[in-house]
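The protein record quoted for completeness.
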Amino acid sequence: MFKHYQQDSFCYKNKALKLGIAKKIHKKHKLKPGDVFGKLTLVESVTQKRYGYNGIYWLCMCECGETKVVYQYDLICKKVQSCACLKKLFSEENIDSKSNKNLYKLWHGIKLRCYNKKAIDYKRYGGRGIKMHKEWIDNSAKFIIDIKNSIGPRPQDKTLDRIDNSGNYEPGNLRWATNEEQKLNSSSTTLSEDEIRKIRAKYESRNMQKDIAKEYNMSTNQIWMIINKISWSDVV
């Protein structure tokens, strides 16, 4: 597993301090090809002049396929995390800029409640073992692109919902849902194993999914997942 770096406490914007601080950072962090910074993967180290001195740079491969030479200090301080495709994603010129920023807020909120034990909702999510798709944890841009390609931009008056309420935030288990739909979705976690068997038996007896959903105060999508053993797959 390649190492993902967090922002260093030495990172300052003052150019007068930058050279001395950069030298300390370079000594502290021993980077190697394959290390990952945002969307950039290190390929090889190169030496270039910076402020009249030899600086440590890295040739990087971006997830979008482009290459970029980046100053090591800027990588460690998270000043540069892509070849520029991330900047374009959130730029005002991008017609989807507002949509992307809203999705970024969703990504940040999911990450908090799944992994930050101090978060208000952690017990209901991370505390229950709910996780985020591993390719999204440190890559908000991939989360945004995958969501828009799979379930589309966020519709008005809808929020992101897990289809299987006991499942993770991952591809195939997400949809846009109203508050009412989300309330119905949460009810599936209170079912007993006997009720799950009865639901499947009713369907095999040619009861309509919508009628079963109404009886159990659930959505037809939940019933479909139970019938096809996508959820409650351990109940035979």
